[in-house]
Amino acid sequence: MLDAAALLALRNLPLVARLIAEGGQAGLHPSRRRGAGMEFSQYRPYQPGDDLRRLDWRLAARSDRYYIRESDVDTRLTVRLVLDASASMNHPDSAGVSKLDYARLLLAGLAYVAQQQGDAVGFYAVQATGLQTVPPRSDAGQLQRLYHALGAVQAAGSLPGAPTLAPLFGRQGSTVTVVLSDLYDLEEGSQLEQVLTHLRAAGGEVMVLHLLAPNELTLDYPNTATLEDLETGQRLQLDPAQRPEYQRQLEDWLRRTEQSVRGHGLDYYRLLTDEPPAQALRQVLRRRQGAPV
């Protein structure tokens, strides 16, 4: 499993997406399941409690035995990939991989997985200037549209208000919405909090991928470093004596952030940019399926 820096060095997002997806070795959902669908799959012996409408009476008349017709039920989904493209996503880790670059890799891998399962997949970049959209489709050219949009997106400014993002909030059916963000704006009443509230109200399944760089957690910088908020421009001189207090506040913020996401009824996953993207994808998909990681 290659790390993000090695994958970015390939400069080939379609190839990287396939490598990540194959390394993940899991899907968003079983592509087919047995049930009362439209496409015949097999017979099985009747069991008490089975729906008699699925019993094959002609076969019963010929064989004097009772069999149930099983079919393949189509479980295809609409998968919506939502990327936070605010300025804080430009933050690099110690290897020089920004959260935005890591997000490109991970979402490209997810798009490949969805397309391989026949799902309609779309992409939404939430930017200060509005919402960049590649509407969900399942045709052969959709991955190239998504890769182009992922490669072109730039992170800047802060998140727009919820009214700007109205196309995300229509009623959803068999939909999985994957939101990838560093969640720095997630406070009560914030723009991001309103977005999560609207997504929950729209229905469908929502997965929130909380992406962080390890140096944000450890403050692994020289003692003389000056820290700058990428969205407000505010600067702060790093004081080594304040690291324990920073760690305490950070742990409190991480706990409150996870509680807030789960409190909206959404699935929460925390990821770090030093983790190979294929490994991160595997963990997310297998946890979603309830399988051991």
UniProtKB/TrEMBL annotation:
Pfam families: DUF58 (PF01882). Residues 42-250 form the DUF58 domain. InterPro entries: DUF58, vWFA_dom_sf. This is DUF58 domain-containing protein. It comes from Solirubrum puertoriconensis.
